[in-house]
Amino acid sequence: MRAFVKKIVHSILVRTFPSKMGYNIKPKGEGYFHAGTIVQKANKKGLSVAEYLEKYNIGGVGKRRDEIILKLKDAGVMKQCEAIVEIGAGTGMYLEKFIAHCNPSKYEVYETDKGWSKYLSFKYTSQHLHLKVHNADGSSLQFTADNSSDIVAAHAVFVYLPIVITIQYLQEAVRVCKKNGHIIFDCFTDGVFTFDEISNFSIVNPNYTFPVIITEELINQYCTKFNLQIVSSFNINYHLTQSTYFILKKL
Questions:
Q1: In which band, very low, low, confident or very high, does the pLDDT at 137 lie, cut at 50, 70 and 90?
Q2: Contacts by 80-84 with C-beta closer than 8 Å and gap 24+?
Q3: 233 and 151 in a common domain
Q4: Mean pLDDT across 192-219
Q5: What is the largest distance, in Å, between two alpha-carbon atoms of the chain?
Q6: Are 242 and 164 part of one and the same domain?
Q7: How do residues 21-51 score in pLDDT, each as one tens digit?
Q8: Mean of all residue pLDDT scores within the chain
Q9: What sign does the CA torsion over 112, 59, 108, 185 have?
Q10: What local confidence, expressed as pLDDT, does residue 1 receive?
Q11: CB of 190 closer than 8 Å to CB of 216
Q12: Mean of the pLDDT values across residues 218-227?
């Protein structure tokens, strides 16, 4: 009985004074990069957030963005993109490129991190009047109408989300995507993220324990169930491994 009471008291103390009890509890949706810190450092260097992250390879970002955008252009994705939805836009790295290449009339963002949501609203709403940063719930695209978007994209998001949440987002992506529109995302697949890749991943940072692997069979089931065509897929550098991009067309 005494041990049970001690356990309850410890649980209450952890929730009430986490730092004093040796725990670091982060709120749901807190970003991979802290918005205030990154923006401040980028401003000091006279660079945009994306330029700063790429130039100094913060978090292993590197130059993968340009390679991805080129692949999307080659696949013809950017020829028709009046309305775009992005899941987890974060720093706005890809939003920046899509606006520059497509000049969409409507761009919707679902971002759970409050810091980055405020940053995106502040930086891009004045430049692009049709940008809408939604109050995201972390699993749905509830503010977007059915069959209303030419592109639904998620960059470096499904590599870490629990698989159930990823599937919820993918189902929502089908709902809001127009016929002949595209669903774009990357993830770690079992065909690429092998045992050795997993073993080497912690070399980058021992705290990088986030990777979630999605089987290629599950991707195929998703496409079959929702009548999606795989237009293209390609591997792209992600730290010491690679993530796989899928460009899907809603038929």
A1: very high
A2: 80/150, 80/180, 81/150, 81/151, 82/106, 82/150, 83/107, 83/108, 83/148, 83/149, 83/150, 83/151, 83/178, 84/108, 84/149, 84/150, 84/151, 84/152, 84/153
A3: yes
A4: 86
A5: 68
A6: yes
A7: 444 444 444 557 899 999 999 999 999 898 8
A8: 86
A9: negative
A10: 52
A11: yes
A12: 98
Do 111 and 13 share a domain, yes or no? no
Look at residue 86 and give its three-state secondary structure: strand
> Is the distance from CB of 139 to CB of 108 less than 8 angstroms?
no
CA contacts within 13 A on the Cβ side of 27? 7
Answer yes or no: is 47 within a domain: no
Q: With beta carbons less than 8 A apart as the criterion, state whether 35 and 119 touch.
A: yes
Indicate the SS3 state at residue 192: coil
Range of the domain at 176: 68-250
- CA–CA–CA angle 59, 161, 211 (5° rounding): 55
Query: What pLDDT, on a 0 to 100 scale, did the predictor assign at position 33?
Result: 84
